[in-house]
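Task card 7
Instruction: Convert sequence to structure tokens.
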Amino acid sequence: MEPMELLECSPPLARESLNAQQAAAVARVFKALGDPVRLRILSIVAAGGEACVCDIAAAFEVSQPTVSHHLKVLKEVGLLTSERRASWVYYRVVPESLAELSALLNTPAAV
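Output:
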């Protein structure tokens, strides 16, 4: 089962604790987001709705293979999706994945 698929059936952390499988899947997603380059990549893609790999790579002072690795990690955990158009690859955020993370972390306001 993919990490984000496990989140679909996970209740908010404040309501019920995660089981071991859910915790491992959620940790993978947060580990992916724990890298500053990956977090910036996600932000760049989300801000523009989509981004070409050439534009993403241009925003960093790291090699293109390093950017490709970070994009692969974000895709593997279900945060990004991609589409090839001619010789370029365009990336988009998976809105459902961000919504699931948001719901997982949603806690009621203190009264």
